[in-house]
């Protein structure tokens, strides 16, 4: 058992993998934060999607009026979905990239730029900033993921 | 080759990793089940999103009336999206957590509570149960994921 | 350091894991492509979700008319969401499957059929093909994922 454990921890003791683990958790937590922001806007704007969520505001017609969409709630939800669409590929491709033996400095560059771009994307979406603020931050994160994908395919190619 | 294989299977022979693999597959299968439930409600309620899906009900106006949203279909779809938003972070953070060398008993506690909470969340959404049933089950899964994230960051921190 | 690196690259040097990495990156890139297709349709159809995205078309009422949904944009978005719902389980269950020691030929069969089914699904959604084209391609990918899940649970079962 202890020998096995030692081997397992070698993975997490590798510096590239540690960096990957740190940045992957940071962007996943950032994505999870979107749930709390959505919930907070739903409560502040009184705009809910499920009848049972409005029960505390009264019964019948009185509660029904809170079953509605709100532009700010929908904006946060679009930001959340965009996170799913972009952070899932980063997590998956990044994991394989971290196992493909990149230089530590190159790997850190990829992880840092991606995390920065996605945090910038969230601010650009929620403030909101005028375009091309949001578009650029999205494109930077996208390009970083493509660059990691190229390295994985070059290293592991086996069709 | 056989030496390599031996090393690979050491990962899956580790008990924490086995437990992670078991619970990760269970919650991913649970999430996949939402697709079947959506399809079943779409057929029973005759509520489709794509014109080509309604072709078997006739042509023209006759088929067009089945291109509509249905409250029960939308409810299942919201449950599915909520799964994506919460099971993806569990899968990613949980994988890194399983590699960060937790105690087996602590890891099992995290995995079991998360899986239980998400199964409860699905029942709370689909029945539906009055609040705060769904909210609580969501929060428990969320808290378990945060707890695993804390352990990963404490073990692997490398910015 | 170099000893550690050697151990890490053993993972990516394993042929089953290489095949997994190759196909996982291919389907994740295919999913990422949906973002570009959505953006291209939004621009061609002038159908946007955010007011700041329409600013370049003028101000006030003139820009507001481009804040609308378009059937083709919504179709691509449904295809993208369907990818998330199906490629996420493939990535997660497939990773654990690749670590569960399958035969190389069996693993390749799973990965190839899944990738082919999802590429077929995208064509079926975007052209669109008459049913059951899209339904069948979806079901094939779903069945492959279930088959891998069964192997993982059989190998790693630890509740």
TrEMBL record, chains A, B, C:
The record ties this protein, via Pfam families, to:
MAPEG
Could you tell me what reaction this enzyme catalyses?
RX + glutathione = an S-substituted glutathione + a halide anion + H(+)
**Topology term for the membrane:** Multi-pass membrane protein
The portions of this protein that span the membrane are: 20-41, 87-115
Return the EC number. 2.5.1.18
Q: Which InterPro entries match?
A: MAPEG-like_dom_sf, Membr-assoc_MAPEG, MGST1-like
Key words of the record: Acetylation, Endoplasmic reticulum, Membrane, Mitochondrion, Mitochondrion outer membrane, Transferase, Transmembrane, Transmembrane helix
Q: Which GO terms describe its molecular function?
A: glutathione transferase activity
Write out the GO cellular component annotations.
endoplasmic reticulum membrane; mitochondrial outer membrane
- Kindly list the places in or outside the cell where this protein is found, as annotated in its UniProt entry: Endoplasmic reticulum membrane; Mitochondrion outer membrane
How does the annotation summarize its subunit structure?
A: Homotrimer; The trimer binds only one molecule of glutathione.
Q: What does this protein do?
A: Conjugation of reduced glutathione to a wide number of exogenous and endogenous hydrophobic electrophiles.
- What's the name of the protein? Microsomal glutathione S-transferase 1
Q: Identify the species of origin.
A: Trogon melanurus (Black-tailed trogon)
Source organism lineage? Eukaryota, Metazoa, Chordata, Craniata, Vertebrata
**Protein encoded by which gene:** Mgst1
């Amino acid at each position: 058992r202890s020998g096995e454990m030692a081997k397992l921890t070698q993975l997490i003791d590798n510096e590239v993998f540690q960096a990957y683990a740190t940045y992957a958790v940071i962007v996943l937590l950032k994505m999870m934060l979107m749930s709390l922001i959505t919930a907070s806007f739903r409560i502040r704007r009184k705009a809910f999607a499920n009848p049972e969520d409005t029960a505390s505001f009264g019964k019948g017609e009185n509660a029904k009026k809170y079953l509605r969409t709100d532009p700010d709630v929908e904006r946060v939800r679009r930001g959340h979905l965009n996170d799913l669409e972009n952070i899932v590929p980063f997590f998956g491709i990044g994991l394989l990239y971290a196992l493909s033996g990149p230089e530590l400095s190159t790997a850190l560059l990829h992880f840092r730029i991606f995390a920065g771009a996605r945090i910038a994307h969230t601010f650009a979406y929620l403030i909101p900033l005028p375009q091309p603020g949001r578009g650029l931050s999205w494109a930077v994160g996208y390009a970083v993921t493509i660059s990691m994908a190229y390295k994985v395919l070059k290293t592991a190619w086996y069709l």
